[in-house]
Automatic annotation (TrEMBL):
This is BON domain-containing protein. Residues 43-52 have a biased composition (Basic and acidic residues). Residues 51-119 form the BON domain. It comes from the Bacteria. Residues 27-42 have a biased composition (Low complexity). Coiled coil: none annotated. Residues 1-18 form the signal peptide.
Length: 120
């Protein structure tokens, strides 16, 4: 009986982990910054459809407004909400670009298609 309880607890934990990984969970107004990207992704999926050209323009505009990324050469494309980026930049700049891209309306997922890291 103890093994059955352990197995059920393990399956419950896996189920919760899968839900969070897919963007599930609570998205209350008092969410912390760690859950902000999940909330934004949830809102993007439930909100009005955003075109790929609008997504790309929004991300490029966010990059232009950011001190760290304003002069970076980053190529951005979007296909059905999946954003693909490539560029030559520092690790810190790459992380910032990933965060800004994830926060854009309509973004489902962000990937680096090609990245060439340069020293800080």
């Amino acid at each position: 009986m103890h093994k059955l309880s352990l197995i059920l607890a393990f399956l419950a934990a896996l189920t919760l982990t899968a839900c969070v990984g897919l963007g599930g969970g609570s998205s209350s107004d008092t969410s912390t910054s760690a859950s902000t990207s999940t909330s934004l992704s949830d809102n993007a999926r439930r909100g009005p459809k955003v075109s790929d050209s609008e997504i790309t323009a929004s991300i490029k505009d966010a990059f232009k407004q950011d001190d760290l990324l304003s002069n970076a050469s980053i190529t951005v494309t979007s296909d059905q909400g999946v954003v693909s980026m490539s560029g030559r930049l520092t690790a810190r700049a790459a992380n910032r670009a990933m965060s800004l891209a994830r926060a854009a309306p309509g973004v489902y997922r962000v990937v680096w298609s090609s990245i060439d890291y340069i020293p800080e």
